Amino acid sequence: LYDRDGWIWLDGEWLPWRDAQAHLLTHTLHYGMGCFEGVRAYAGPQETHLFRVGEHTRRLLDSAHALDMPVAFDAAELIEAQRQCLVRNELRNAYLKPTIFFGAEGLGLRAKGLTVHVMVAAWDLGDYISAEAASLGLRALTSSWARHHVNISLCRAKTNGHYVNSMLALNTAVKAGFDETIMLDPEGYVAEASAANVFLLRDGVLHTPEVTSCLQGITRDSVIHLAREVLGIEVRERRITRDELYVADEAFVTGTAAELLPLRELDGRHIGARAGAPPPGQPIAGGSVTAQLQRLYHRLTRGEPSEDLAAFRDWLTPI
Ligand code: PMP
């Protein structure tokens, strides 16, 4: 990652990629207090656009506010920095990582006078998820690591330090031969995957955990809109137990990078077996609700002109 061409935005200035270094005593490096976003840009038929950059930027500033980190830039300035980051780096299909962090004015939990910095880096993502991976989906293991509790952390904030917990859970599952992990909240209800929200379909109704321990995902929100408003499917946000995933007709995870990936197996249970779904290792059925939502999300994010998605055009910000 170090040695390449490109530009990174830091506090209103453009740094050549190779010179974009932070001091070793950067506070956020030591205590994990900071916040970030993952945002996507897509090459559309005519133009490149950012997808829901307004919502991502709002969540970023909300995270900083919740962490009590004052930011010197407003949403419009940060959106412009993200646009310019694509232009300067000549990117079309890209992933952007705006990040807010403390400087190196002091160490320790009581450090005073810490400066708050904002950076935006972006890189080419191409087709991050292949069509094959999107139809084969994931085999997951329920984690022994609980997801955050609302009284232990700020679950609405996308905080750097939260990802220690995500990585412990993901790494345990990957070492055991799985693709992903499903994390439960401290009461034992389903929270989310390591970096994605989770949905299940049962008897034609979609269910997803309410936003307590899980992140308030923007893809989650997009999928709820698409399901309700385009497919006419009911969506319920509520507490969900892990066995509801075992006996679901379909399940999938959502996230900016993952988009919408089928969850095919959990703890060795084939999800959807009783509803006639193909086994893990074979593509999901094209007519499944998961596949329908995948196609809608794909068309929407790539800016394909179509009548059924016209209501969501303002989610795309042209570059
Ligand atoms: N949960 C966690 C823990 C995440 O890191 C992410 C990715 N940002 C998500 C859910 C999905 O959120 P979004 O759809 O906004 O990317």
Topology, number of strands: 17
Q: Name the average pLDDT.
A: 97
Helix-strand string: EEHEEEHHEEHEHEEEEHEHEEEHE
Ions, cofactors and other bound molecules: 4'-deoxy-4'-aminopyridoxal-5'-phosphate
Cα-atom Rg, whole angstroms? 20 Å
The backbone outline, from C-alpha atoms, is globular
* Helical amount: 25-40%
According to CATH, the fold-level topology of the largest domain is: D-amino Acid Aminotransferase, Chain A, domain 2
Poorly predicted regions are none
Strand content: 25-35%
Give the domain tally. Answer: 2
Please report the first level of CATH classification, the CATH class of the largest domain: Alpha Beta
Oligomer description: single chain
**CA(first)-CA(last) distance:** 25 Å
Largest sheet composition? 9 strands, mixed
| CATH superfamily descriptor of the largest domain | D-amino Acid Aminotransferase, subunit A, domain 2
What do you see in this structure?
The chain folds into two domains: 7-124, 2-Layer Sandwich (D-amino Acid Aminotransferase, Chain A, domain 1), CATH 3.30.470.10; 131-304, D-amino Acid Aminotransferase, Chain A, domain 2 (Alpha-Beta Barrel), CATH 3.20.10. The chain is built from eight helices and 17 strands. It has helices spanning 27-31, 53-66, 75-88, 131-136, 162-175, 218-230, 242-246, 289-301, and strands spanning 7-10, 13-16, 34-36, 39-43, 48-51, 94-102, 116-124, 138-142, 180-184, 190-193, 197-202, 205-209, 235-238, 250-255, 259-266, 269-270, 316-318. A hairpin with a 4-residue loop joins strand 4 and strand 5 (48-51). The radius of gyration is 20 Å and the shape is globular. 4'-deoxy-4'-aminopyridoxal-5'-phosphate binds at residues 38, 166, 192, 195-197, 214-215, 217-220, 254-256. Residues 38, 166, 192, 195-197, 214-215, 217-220, 254-256 line the site of 4'-deoxy-4'-aminopyridoxal-5'-phosphate.
